[in-house]
Each structure stands twice: as structure tokens, then as C-alpha cells.
Amino acid sequence: MSTPPQVPGGPAADGCAEARTAVDARCTESHEATAAHAALTERVRGLRRDLVAARHREDEAVAANDPAIRTAEKAAARDTYQLARATAESDDEVRAATAVWAKAVDHVNRTAAQRRREVAKARAAVTTLEGVLHRTEREEQAARLHADQLEAACLDARVRLAACEEQAQAPEPAATATVFEPHAATGGHAVAISASGAGAPLVIESIVSGDRVALELAAARIAEHTGASPATIQLQLQELLDAVLSAAAEDGYLVFDAGHLFWAGLSFEEARDVVNALARLGFIFEPSEGWHAGRAPAPTDLSMALAYAGLDPRNMRDLPGADDLLALPGSIGVDARGFLAAHAPELTVDNVVHALGRRAAQLEPLWNEWGQVRPTLLSDRHSLGSVPG
Fold first, then answer.
1. Secondary structure (3-state) at 7
2. In angstroms, rounded to a whole number, what is the distance separating the alpha carbons of residues 55 and 61?
């Protein structure tokens, strides 16, 4: 794993070199284990598909080997023989009919033997695949546990590196804590963010609230410590923001426009249940794009979602039409601030990674520099100033 170069003489250049080496080693092992697990997972999927096909072939072979088919074929041959014998005008014709009958019976018997061999072959193939699949599933489970253990070791190494780098930057940690009031529209989520000076918003709060200037200035400050370009850091922070917004939306940290005719008639819990029901129907709200993949619900889909949420659309007024539903995401906000406060109040790398879940994987370069990133995100927004000019 490659890591961005450190600024000469920077806080992590000397004292944290061992911790950074540990991150490189542990996370490289984690990547390799994850790749091995992914390969086994795909192998299991392929074997399951092969087993389904093999069982289908076995069923076909068993059906073709049905004794009733042989009985019917022999009965048809016998009937043909008897008809030919009854209409024969000479002994030669009788002998010819008998030979045809014997040949037909022999063909039925040889075909039956072939079908029995095909059944045995199909069953052997199923048995073999079942054994291979069972062994591969055990290997996949062991690989998953191994990958999970190494992923935890990688994350622990990153936690230690971040703590080392932060200690190098600020040997005296802040001792006060600020507790922020929750947004009422979110149903009162707890929002204690982190240790900080009282009063001013934190940089992370400003960023998740849409302050683009704060994001740009934070990227410039972090770049001074990491040696990466401000543009690179800004892109990483934007990816972090998108991941936080998406995770918060999925977890129900939503804010609904009280002035919107549809949402005004629902409580917060009802509105959230409707959004969740739409998601189960395949209409997923994404903060950065509106309806995921542009797939907007129709009025009939909304009626079904309302029913899933325990609401009767017949008793509701001002239900959105097709055009209104297409624009509905514009009336939904995300309380990313509250989400972070509830799930990662101190913004430690392990808590943020766990809060983001599957979305954390794409942010690996940021986790490697979290000891340089976190102090800036938890600093006073006013300390960043504004963009010159």
C-alpha cells in the first residue's frame, strides 16, 4: 500500500514512522485477505449455479428413465408386431415382422441401459458438486473470518497512527465538550459532536451543512500537513461528505420540508416510514442525486408505500402527482450532523468507519491520514477564515 509523502519535518515524520509502517503491513494483509475472500465468494456462487444446473440435468435424466416410458415403447412395438402378423400373407412376412419386433425391443432395452447410465452419471456429478461446494463454503467462511480479523487489525493500526499523529500535533488535548441541540425536524436525535470549544460550529459541522468554503479551506489546511495537493484532499473530503450523507439518509436521519403540502400532513415518523417503504419498492432517495438512477415512483407506487407505512391514501389530500413525485427529493434534507453525533461523536477513525459501513472502503486514503484530518475537522470553523479575495 502506498501512502502520501509527509511534509519534511512534519509531525508524523519521525515519531509515527513505526505506526505508519504497521498500517502499511496490517492493511496490506487485510487487502490480500479481502481479495482472497472475494474470490472464494465468487467461486461459491459459481458452484451453486453449477449445482442447480446439475440437479436440473439429473431431473431430466430421471424423467427420461421412467419405467413407464419403456413399458409404453415395448407395448407399441408389440402392437405393431401383432398388426403385422395379423396381416401377413406368408411365413416370410411373419418372420420379418418378428425380426422388426425383436429389433425394436432390443433398441428399447439398449436405450434404457443408456438412460440408466445417464442417471448414474448425473447423480455422480451432483454428489461431486455438493462435496466441492460444501468444502468451498467452509473455506469461504474461514476466509471471511480471517478477512474480518485482519480488517479489524488494519483499523486498529489506523487508530494508533491517528492518535500518534494527533499527539504530535497537539500534545495537550482539549478538555471541554460542547453539546449541540438536535434539529427538531429529525425527531430529536442526540447530537453531541465532540470535544471542542463552546459556541462556534466545528469545521465538520459546517461541511456536512453545505459550507463549500469550509470544505475548500479545510482541504488546504490538511494538505499542508500531509503533503498531498489541496485538490486531492478536497476530493477526498467530498467523498467523505457524500458517504456521510448517504449513510445518514439510509439510517433515517432525514429532514422534511414543513412547507411542502405532502410532508405537512405527516408526522416525522410517518414521513420517514414512507421514504423507507419507497426504498423497499426500489425507489431509493439519494442526497446527491435525488431518486437513485433517476427511477422515480409513480402515484400508484406512492399509494402502495403509504399502505406499507400504515397510512390510507384514500384519507389523504394533496397527494403528489407524477411530476411532483419526480421533484419530491428536493423537499427532503439530511441531518448528517445528527448522524455523526449519534454514531461517531468524537470522529475517531474506527467510529467513522463503522458508521459508514460499506461506504468506508472507498475512503481508504483518508483513513491513512486521519491523524492529520481529524484535528482540522474538529477545529473551530472561524479559525479557517474565508477564501482570500
1. coil
2. 10
> Is the Cβ–Cβ distance between 170 and 353 less than 8 Å?
no
What's the mean pLDDT when you consider all of the chain? Answer: 87
pTM (2 d.p.): 0.73
Residues 54 and 121 reside in one and the same domain:
yes
The gap between the terminal CA atoms of the chain, to the nearest Å, is: 39
Domain count, the chain: 3
Burial level of 75, CB count in 10 A (0-12/13-18/19+)?
exposed
Angle at 233 between CA 229 and CA 237, to 5 degrees: 165
DSSP bridge partners of 290: 286
Verify that 76 and 135 share a domain, yes or no.
yes
Cβ-Cβ contacts under 8 Å for 102 (sequence gap 6 or more): none
H helices within the chain, ranges in order? 17-64, 67-87, 91-169, 203-208, 212-226, 230-250, 261-264, 268-280, 299-308, 322-326, 336-343, 349-356, 364-368, 370-377
d(CA 234, CA 242): 12
If one counts every other C-beta atom within 10 angstroms of the C-beta of residue 310, the result is 10
The percentage of residues in the chain with a pLDDT greater than 70, rounded to a whole number, is 88
- 81 lies in some domain: yes
Q: Is residue 4 in some structural domain?
A: no
Alpha-carbon span 84 to 216, nearest angstrom = 97
On whether residue 264 sits in a domain, the answer given is: yes
Q: Are residues 39 and 75 in the same domain?
A: yes
State the residue range of the domain holding 300: 254-334
Collapsed DSSP state (helix, strand, coil) of residue 9 = coil
Q: Is 353 helix (H, G, I), strand (E, B) or coil?
A: helix
Among 174-178, 223-227, 240-244, 347-351, which is the least confidently predicted range?
A: 174-178
Cα angle, residue 328 at apex, residues 327 and 334 outer, rounded to 5° = 120
Please check whether residues 200 and 347 belong to one and the same domain.
yes
* Domain end among 169, 200, 216: 169
In terms of domains, do 236 and 268 share one? no
Which residues touch 210 (CB under 8 Å, ≥6 apart)? Answer: none
Reply yes or no on whether the pLDDT at 252 is more than 70.
Answer: yes
